[in-house]
Amino acid sequence: MLEHDVLVIGAGLAGMRAAIAARAEGASVAIISKVHPVRSHSNAAQGGINAALTDRGDDWEDHAYDTVKGSDFLGDQDAIEVMCASAGQALIDMEHFGVTFNRDDEGKLGTRAFGGQRRARTFFVGDFTGQALLHVMFEQLIKSGVRRYEEWFVTALIEEDGRVCGVTALEIRTGQIYAIRAKTVIFCTGGLGRLFEPSTNALIVTGDGMALAYNAGAQLMDMEMVQYHPTTLAGSGVLISEAARGEGAYLLDKDGNRFMEKYAPNMMELASRDVVSRAEQTEINAGNGVNDCVYLDCRHLGEALIMEKLSQIREIGIDLAGTDMITDPIPIRPGMHYMMGGIKTNVDGLTNLPGVYAAGECACVSVHGGNRLGANSLLDTIVFGQRSGVHAAQACRGEEYIEFNVDETVRQEQRRIQEVIDRPQNGDKVGSVRLGMGGSMNRNLAVYRNDAGMRETIHDLQGLKEKYTKVPVDNKNKVFNTDLVFALELGFMLDCAETIAVSALERKDSRGAQSRTDYPNRDDENWMKHIVASKGEEGPEISFSPVSVTKWTPEERKY
Amino acid sequence: MDVTFKIKRYDPEVENPESYWQDYTVTLDDSSTILDGLIKIREEVDGTLSLRCSCRSSICGSCAMRINGHAGLACKTQARLATDENNVIILEPAGVMPVVKDLVVDFDIFWSKIMAVDPYLKPEGPEPEAEYIASNEAMLHLSEVTACIMCGSCVSDCTVMEVDPTFLGPAALAKAYRFTADPRDGDAKGLSRDRLEALNEASGMWDCTRCGECVQACPKGVAPMDRIMALREQAINSGFDNTLGARHAEAFADSVEHSGQLDELRLVPNTVGMTNLPVLLNMAPEALRAFTHGKLPPIIHKKIENADRVKKLFRRVEDPDRK
Amino acid sequence: MKYAFFPGCVSRGGCPELYPAAKLICERLNIELQEMPGASCTGAGVLQEKNEFLGDALNARTFAMAEALGIQIMTICSTCQGVMSQANRRMKKNPEYLSKINVELAEEGLEYKGTADPKHLLWIIIEDYGLDKLETLITKPLAGIRLAPFYGCYLVRPTEALDFADNPERLTSLERLIETLGATVVDFSGKTRCCGFPILTINEKNSMAMVGKHTAEAKDLGADAMITPCPLCHLNLDAFQPRASAQAQRSIDLPIIHMPQAIGLAMGISPKDMGLQRHIVSTKPLITKLGVPAG
Fold this sequence. Notes:
The structure holds 3 protein chains of 3 kinds.
Chain A: E1 2-9, H1 13-24, E2 29-33, E3 49-50, H2 60-70, H3 77-97, E4 111-112, E5 122-123, H4 129-144, E6 147-150, E7 152-160, E8 163-171, E9 176-187, H5 208-215, E10 220-221, E11 226-233, H6 243-246, E12 250-252, H7 260-263, H8 273-285, E13 294-297, H9 303-309, H10 311-321, E14 330-339, E15 342-344, E16 356-358, E17 363-364, H11 376-396, H12 406-422, H13 430-444, H14 451-468, H15 482-506, H16 524-527, E18 529-536, E19 539-546
Parallel strand pairs in A: 1-2, 1-9, 2-6, 9-16, 15-17
Antiparallel strand pairs in A: 3-5, 4-5, 7-8, 8-9, 10-15, 10-18, 11-14, 12-13, 13-14, 18-19
Helix pairs in contact in A: 1-4, 1-11, 2-3, 3-11, 5-15, 13-14, 13-15, 14-15
Chain B: E1 2-9, E2 20-27, H1 34-45, E3 64-67, E4 70-73, H2 79-82, E5 88-92, E6 99-101, E7 104-105, H3 108-116, H4 136-146, H5 153-157, H6 159-163, H7 170-180, H8 193-199, H9 213-217, H10 224-237, H11 244-259, H12 264-272, H13 277-282, H14 284-292, H15 307-318
Parallel strand pairs in B: 1-5
Antiparallel strand pairs in B: 1-2, 3-4, 3-5, 6-7
Helix pairs in contact in B: 3-7, 7-10, 11-12, 11-15
Chain C: E1 2-6, H1 18-28, E2 32-35, H2 46-50, H3 52-69, E3 72-75, H4 78-93, H5 95-106, E4 119-120, H6 121-129, H7 131-136, E5 146-149, H8 173-180, E6 184-185, H9 204-220, E7 225-228, H10 231-239, H11 241-248, E8 256-258, H12 259-266, H13 284-290
Parallel strand pairs in C: 1-2, 1-3, 3-4, 5-6, 5-7, 7-8
Helix pairs in contact in C: 1-12, 3-4, 3-5, 4-5, 9-11
């Protein structure tokens, strides 16, 4: 019988941090991931991780305020305070684990400027901070002895008497289905970028955890808050880090003007991401771009700086866009990047389902509210990964496993999966259904939204969900059947897409990443609240949740 | 442009499974990568083709495979730069590691080597309250090695692992160097004695044949072979000078120091020990054949002109006061 | 055409047939050679394990000597070529590093100005001399002879240090030479792999496994001989082939010839003058197939 006190689903930064923390509390812990842990999308974070270090005269309340303002006052201030107050220690922990952070002339941790923050407090490793943190976290995971289920895909949650008590999972290598029993489950499954086409996200980012939790009765919150990153490559949508702007790069229109002057005269290119993306989109819509792009210009930064601090994005520009940022500006445009919304949790990662926790991008505490500041996501994963791990482990003490019929559970799941495999060809393909969804989401749930557009997407999604129930799979084999995995992921994606469209339609104001041309202003009187989506008979059911306000009263947001 | 991908496939579920070639021709943009082509094949032509891929931007390390015979990342290679005169690109699964299905290989051997070098920081003293103080130079140097994304390209093409699966291999040795070179690992001076000792053992740092395949294959500029050479220098400088490899390097250096050239005749005895009869006798057949074929290097080893200048250069550079 | 000839240590030591063969070829090709008797060993990558800076300084001396003569260096060994190219690249990439090196050279009154571009005879023939021109000197094309090219690691990796981007023909230089000589290329997967020479004394089993693998593969594909531009490879592939054969528990018997020897044979020079009788693995079958007197 496969059983563990704590089962962490997802082995990115949040997942591995949670697993290590739970293990340190003495729990039996396992971590399950559909890819090897070092392939997780945390890898792709580039710019850095925020922390206010008091020994340099920084103040975590400053960082908290910047974050609250960045969230357009939708972030829960109690959670933000927890995150910012813990950041210093989280950063030092990572350095002690071995991360090769950049240093200043005194040999202490060095910083760079980043979007939405009035003070440089972003700690970094070149422009591949996420990869650096992820690999060190994996080293620590190895050291901790946590059991790893690598390349195992969670297909469903097991519930008994309304309580989640385990998961069924597909061992991708063999095609076998297993049931794993757990006293607590922590979702650390990341975002849902592949709902949109294009997106900066990797192919594996398909909202699995959000959908699994939602379907088991968990509340999803702030699903309308989808971040479009200002600098993504045309075509592939691959990310070009904010670090470039942090080091001083300019955004230019087709005539070489720094247009941010009009939108954020103080912070310019380093205003919060939603502000910059909107600015770019406005310029592009007005005809001031080239091929639906504007330019990111790093030439004045010089070769030495680029090679030391922005080498990865330079390689990406060369490999994927044929452009060397040392000598030429790069064409970029806003692209879907991050999900502020997710599974609703408290500051300890607990969801509304007993024994079920969530942390990282898949969770919504909420620390990012309507817009996430750059370099706050890496922080979020580590702080809340740790808290969830600790609390989940503590919650297991004295608890028994919940019994269920393992063989029957496995058999039922096998039947369900076999039904998918056995579907006859009907002309549809998983890829084209996904593209249908991705195109519709990118059209109507992007930087600028309106009523008609969102309703169109809701309608499109209904049709796609229909198709999904019958979409066939080419590969009927057992070993490494990625075709099957994609079909299962598509189901998760469609569930999430629905909650996004319905939540966005519900919110009748513009706040943070949600910008409605039909409700262009922020309406604190009626809409300073979280939109919560729960699974109902006929689709997502909306309810509301208040925003925690501890220190900072909402004000007009100017950069 | 139309590109034909000639892919080496393998299906473990048939009776008597064997690798076989399958061609796919797809239309790609000029800026498409090989991975774009594979995803297109998978989504539009043949969903049974198995491969690992995720980020599309050379950071996750999933899509390493042999492209026209040499390992690399499919997402980093532009299709138009990899085609031959018939617009064909040959794709095979990575080498050394056994094939699971199509382009998916079993990474167990890769990870077992990484695990074998204790791949996590091991500082010997107490941890400071705040961060360890370290120079940016040191961190930048380490970041060149931590840039490794564990893609397996180096292992795929390693000429030693191809014939000897017990060799630690380029990825694990580069990872080991990442720690021996970290001022925070090991003792207060940053010396990681235990690691160096373990790496000096059989199948460790001295088994690399310096062929350069790993340097060529690595998509992130980690240059594993260069790190292995740095490990050797560290080992010798830390007093681990009694391995065959270290003795070989010393014997070679001595020869050049004294005569400006390599004295091949004395190299082997100096490496294995002048009195190491069993090993010396082992080489007797070759020595005898060389003698009878007139290939034995001259007993009296000729020095180069002004050999003393070379000697002086050695003395200056190797002066311990200078180090 | 005049070059500063750098024969390396092994071509006059363990493979003494190579040095006179190379000189004879150059004479026939009208390539003038001037030796540098004060030039030292390149370090062969082994010295660099102990002290890379020292190795670079030794090579910088050699470069400076050639600069003083006003001519470029010619190598006849893949290992010499690779080591020199890598050293050169380090010094050219980093002027600060080069000045540190020159501080050492100054003690001898030498200075390396960064203009050296050492080239292997194989590349000189392809790029500077010309295969077309070489073809006019071929009087005894190696018709019907199947040759397997074995480059030697240091002549093909890393491509950055060897300027492959600017000289892409270097990638297939040996194959094109073989075809120009009238022989047929035996393509095999081991052609750019390692002969195992660097680990001969450290891990004999692996070294012999490599020799056995590559020679057996070429032999089974029908090669009459293997041709290599590196005397260190030659030593392992030829002198140690019997041992490799014994370890692999199979016969191999594949003659290994030096690149200049192949050229010489095609130009009608006798096998004896090319030193073919000195090889450990008998070259008689090859000579017989060539249909020429051994000389």
